[in-house]
Design a protein that fits this description.
Number of strands: 0
Largest sheet: none
Helix content: over 70%
Structural class: mainly alpha
Number of domains: 1
Length: 439
């Protein structure tokens, strides 16, 4: 029963810590390749059954997560509607045509497409939509595996790393923005230069690493015409209108203080209705394909983290972080907080790290404004240090495996760790400079 505490303060802290450690370990290891929602959901139910959370704490969690949850589902439904009509296949084939056989040009265009998709349809949406398309495209134009690697790694990296640009681009962004009252426009202004720095550094790093593979041309004539993969021309044009409406809605809604989900849900439902009307995909098919398990995972982790925080299990971590984000700590301390949460995200997954960031910022007295953006950068880019740092990376690895491309955890770490550190340094450096102009 909620509110019932069968433990002393000391034993409650121990039980909360055991549940947290068990859930994080199971999420990282994923025995039998089970969905991470099982572990987070099970841990949350156990915490509730043992009375580790009050009814008030549950209401706070619902308040903190409802906007992010609704936006997540809406963006996936929108992505599914676009993908069902061949939108992303068209985009990849169009880019290949524009590249005109140049591997280096295709590489640059692929990075731009990934960045745009992650910004508008979130990091998980970018991974789910673009990874299988690029896997099939690359297998066709570059049968030799080593020639596929620069595109595979760079696209997978930027899907996460570039998701700090807009509030809806990452579940973690929405949670942090809602908790701290950040508008869409304000976040975009703060993040424009750090994301440009991240794009240039990460793109250049992978390009230099795989420069010999990128020098290999490909045969454009082996590809289908982009127009041939579009099922319905009217729906295709409506897809462009929907994406434009999404951006306009985010800007206007942000200035009016409206929830991000209101814009995302409205646009998604409009395109979903047209998709069914045109006979491309039914509403039921689209809703069944929505990431309900991701939603369970996110809410479950929030319950487990909050239970541990309320039991003072995380004091060893939250107390120093609170000092770093509170006055009189300045810009360097704020970047330090972002760096610590980047490492935490890599070690235990970015969602728990971002939730700890929310709790730390809430506990701070007049939290340093720069620290909020530093934490967003840390939990969005830092997870690329490890293959289990974000759910998007786990999805990416699974999709590649199903398409016959095996990337081991050791291979992932070797290719990503140094790029991640360089990208974090560039993004934090750019944020430091931006703070002088915007504060």
């Amino acid at each position: 029963m909620l509110g019932f505490h069968p433990f002393t303060d000391g034993s409650q802290a121990v039980v909360a810590a055991l549940i947290l450690v068990a859930v994080v370990a199971l999420v990282v290891v994923r025995p039998r390749k089970l969905d991470v929602a099982w572990f987070a959901g099970g841990g949350a139910l156990l915490a509730l059954a043992l009375g580790l959370l009050s009814a008030h704490a549950l209401l706070t969690i619902a308040h903190d997560t409802w906007d992010a949850a609704a936006t997540l589902i809406a963006l996936f439904v929108l992505s599914e509607s676009l993908d069902a009509n061949g939108f992303f296949n068209w985009a990849a084939l169009r880019l290949a045509r524009i590249a005109n056989g140049s591997g280096a040009r295709l590489y640059g265009l692929a990075l731009l497409l990934t960045t745009a998709t992650a910004a508008l349809l979130a990091n998980d949406g970018a991974v789910l939509m673009l990874t299988p398309i690029f896997a099939r495209l690359l297998t066709r134009i570059y049968p030799e595996r080593r020639l596929q690697l620069p595109y595979i790694f760079a696209v997978g990296f930027l899907a996460d790393a570039m998701s700090a640009l807009f509030v809806p681009s990452n579940l973690t962004n929405i949670i942090l923005a809602d908790a701290n009252g950040l508008s869409f426009t304000r976040v975009a202004l703060w993040m424009a230069l750090p994301m440009l720095a991240a794009f240039v550094v990460a793109g250049t790093a992978f390009g230099a690493r795989f420069r010999h593979a990128l020098a290999k041309p490909f045969d454009v004539t082996a590809l289908a015409a982009p127009e041939s993969v579009v099922r319905d021309r009217l729906l295709f044009r409506a897809g462009w209108v929907a994406l434009g409406g999404l951006v306009v809605g985010y800007i206007v809604g942000g200035e009016l203080g409206l929830p991000v989900s209101l814009v995302a849900v409205t646009v998604a439902l409009g395109l979903l209705a047209l998709t069914q009307t045109r006979g491309v995909r039914t509403v039921g098919e689209s809703l069944r394909g929505a990431p309900w398990s991701v939603l369970i995972y996110a809410i479950g982790m929030f319950v487990v983290i909050t239970a541990a925080y309320n039991a003072h299990t995380l004091s060893f971590l939250t107390e120093p972080l609170t000092r770093l984000v509170s006055p009189p700590a300045g810009r360097v301390a704020a970047v330090g907080a972002g760096s610590l949460l980047a490492l935490l995200a890599a070690a235990v997954n970015n969602l728990p790290a971002s939730l700890i960031g929310v709790l730390v910022l809430r506990a701070a007295t007049h939290a340093n404004h720069i620290a909020i953006y530093a934490i967003i950068l840390g939990v969005d880019i830092g997870p690329k240090l490890t293959p289990f740092g974000s759910l998007a990376t786990l999805l990416w690895l699974g999709i590649l495996e199903r398409n016959g491309i095996h990337i081991s955890w050791g291979h992932f770490i070797r290719e990503n760790w140094w790029v991640t550190l360089l990208t974090l340094a560039a993004a934090f450096g750019a944020l430091y400079l931006v703070s002088f102009a915007l504060l």
